[in-house]
Design a protein that fits this description.
alpha/beta; 2 domains; disordered N terminus; four-stranded antiparallel sheet; elongated; Rossmann fold; binds magnesium ion; binds adenosine-5'-triphosphate
């Protein structure tokens, strides 16, 4: 729980990202380019709507100045202009909103797909360094920030830059002297905004961090609510969460106070400055250096310009946030998997006359350590071979490296030395997707998905019929309990299968492997959670299956491995003995010791 308060952690969507400039945003171009038509429409609509925004004060000047009786005839014309400008503004603004927001949604959908598509195929080594939760929040929070930028901020920024430049130009054209005056007054308004604005931003980041802390704490404890309650941890959890929430509130309040002062100050200075300029303008109108319409026009432009400055200062921090988010997502997209498929993959060996059966497994002098623990050798010059159709059991103490052998067989990791081969072909020479098709595996901790029982069994063969699913469930001694579920095979089993017992989950995983119908069966403690009766039923099914398949079994209960064709005894990643049960017992090594402990009772 302590790591949830680790301040060095980079939160998604946080402006504290490694770089503070906006350069990472350019990576988004690659995602915008395929939708060039929509981007162009957005740009055209943006330019047009900005131009018509700028035209409105000019039309309004005509209206105001035609109040004098001698211009009465022109008033209709100016009103028509005003209406046309307003109508065009409305059309192009709607079009701009549609194109820009649509582009934002499209790009974010593409980024989400690209990132998930990339990450879902990453090998376990990647997830050992990258927390799953962090990947998820990048997929959701960071992409949402980017959506805001492409769908809103970029258009706000561009529009306001156009209005700022255009408005300033029009102000100068309307009255150079008043514009000069405004220019002089600008620093008085901008300076406090910049200085205080920086503090407000810092404080809002602090508040966000606090909120992230509190949700991390809440997430952990709610996910493990049973452990929390069993150990009476609720008061402590409440205390920690309360403290986080109050800290977040305190930080937010500080920010709000600063923001309130800033707002008041800006209004005071801005209104003061406008009043000053207006006073000078009024003097000009009185001395007939300026028409009332011109003063109106000038005022409107200065309001536009001031508004765009304000909008730009807000958008700036948004853009910075999005730059950080983009950088993290692109990092994720660029992450290279340590397990790379070969450039020219060899096809797995096919059934032929001299090879009637498939599934020969070879470990050739394999040494391996996990990349996260380079100092702890797990497998040590391990060599063994499993012939097609043979059933071999791996036994050994906890931590001996049995599950690791399975990990290497699936090529989730590559050995440091030696080679793992399937039917004589080095795994590294084949495309993982093709040779993994040859394995049906029941892992030590089977993964059950939040779906129906049938869908969980169908996991490895999406096209299997319900009859096939039922046949597999029957073979795995799972049919009876599934049929007794409220909706039978359509019954939802809950997230991670929480609505099932440990043994039920195992039997679903076994049914899944049976349905997969692959030449190699890998069973890692597949029946460890079953009662004796179900285990016997499953064992019979497995025996039937393994009769024609290569089977590698890991089990602590030696009764389940006794009937294997061969037993390999692993000790600290080394093969220390091999043979059939009686032979190994007679030899009197580690296996005999284990057997004595288990069978003497
Ligand atoms: N992902 C990993 N990263 C680092 N070390 C690991 C990882 N997985 C396993 N290990 C280490 O490798 C060693 C062998 O683990 P392995 O899971 O192969 O044991 P096992 O023989 O299957 O044990 P058990 O019977 O308890 O399942 C252990 O010391 C373990 O701590
Ligand atoms: Mg294991």
């Amino acid at each position: 729980m302590s790591d949830s308060r680790d301040n060095s952690r980079v939160e998604p969507g946080d402006a504290r990202a490694p770089s503070k400039d906006l350069r990472p945003l350019s990576a988004l171009w690659g995602f915008v380019r395929p939708h060039g038509g929509l981007a162009l429409l957005a740009l055209v609509a943006l330019l047009a709507s900005s131009a018509f925004t700028l035209a409105i004060p000019a039309a309004l000047r005509g209206v105001v100045d035609s109040f004098s009786p001698k211009h009465a005839a022109e008033i209709d014309r100016y009103f028509v202009w005003l209406l046309v400008a307003a109508g065009a503004l409305a059309v192009f603004t709607a079009l701009r909103f549609y194109a820009v927001a649509g582009l934002g949604e499209r790009v974010v959908a593409d980024i989400r797909r690209a990132v998930y598509g990339h990450v879902v195929g990453m090998s376990p080594a990647f997830f050992e360094r990258m927390r799953i939760g962090e990947t998820l929040s990048r997929l959701t929070t960071d992409t949402t920030v980017i959506q805001g930028v492409i769908g809103v901020s970029s258009s706000v920024a561009l529009r306001n830059i156009l209005i700022l430049v255009g408005g300033a130009a029009m102000m100068t054209a309307t009255s150079p002297s008043l514009s000069g005056l405004v220019l002089l007054a600008t620093p008085a308004v901008v300076l406090p905004v910049v200085l205080l604005g920086r503090r407000v931003r810092g404080l809002s980041r602090l508040a966000q961090d606090r909120i992230a802390d509190s949700s991390a704490t809440a997430g952990e404890t709610l996910q493990a609510s049973q452990t929390v309650q069993a150990f009476g941890y609720e008061p402590e959890a409440r205390r920690i969460f309360d403290a986080d929430v109050e800290a977040a509130y305190g930080a937010a309040l500080k920010r709000i106070r600063m923001r309130a002062i800033l707002t008041g100050l800006v209004i005071f200075i801005a209104v003061g400055a406008i009043a000053g300029v207006l006073w000078v303008g009024a003097q000009n109108v009185l001395s007939r250096q300026m028409s009332p319409g011109e003063l109106t026009q000038f005022l409107l432009y200065s309001v536009f310009v001031a508004g765009s400055v304000g909008a730009l200062s807000e958008v700036w921090s948004e853009l910075q946030r999005a730059a950080g988010a983009t950088e993290r997502l692109m990092e994720l997209l660029a992450a290279k998997d340590p397990i790379q498929p070969p450039a020219q993959p060899v096809a797995p060996t096919d059934i032929s006359l001299d090879r009637p059966k498939l599934g020969e497994i070879t470990f050739d002098n394999v040494s391996f350590r996990y990349p996260t623990r380079p100092n702890a050798p797990v497998l040590n010059q391990l060599s063994f071979q499993v012939k097609p159709g043979e059933t071999v059991a791996l036994v050994g103490a906890s931590g001996a490296g049995k599950s690791t052998c399975f990990q290497l067989l699936m090529r989730f990791f590559d050995p440091d030395q030696g080679a793992v081969r399937l039917d004589g072909v080095d795994l590294r020479a084949m495309a993982p997707s093709t040779f993994r098709r040859r394995f049906a595996t029941v892992p030590q901790e089977p993964a059950i998905f939040a779906a129906s029982a049938a869908e969980n069994i169908r996991f490895g063969c999406p096209d299997a019929t319900l009859a096939d699913v039922k046949a597999a469930a029957e073979a795995a001694a799972a049919h009876e309990f599934i049929a007794a579920l409220p909706d039978g095979y359509d019954c939802f089993v809950g997230e991670r299968g929480v609505m099932l017992s440990g043994g039920q989950k195992q039997r679903i995983a076994i049914a899944r492997a049976i349905l997969r119908d692959a030449p190699v069966l890998l069973l890692d403690e597949a029946t460890s959670a079953l009662d004796a009766e179900s285990e016997q039923a499953v064992q019979q099914a497995v025996a039937r299956l393994s009769a024609e398949r290569t089977t590698l079994v890991v089990a602590h209960r030696l009764a389940t491995v006794k009937s294997a064709d061969r037993i390999l005894v692993l000790e600290e990643g080394r093969l220390v003995a091999s043979g059939v049960h009686d032979q190994l017992v007679a030899e009197g090594g580690l296996y005999a010791r284990l057997a004595r402990l288990q069978f003497s009772a």
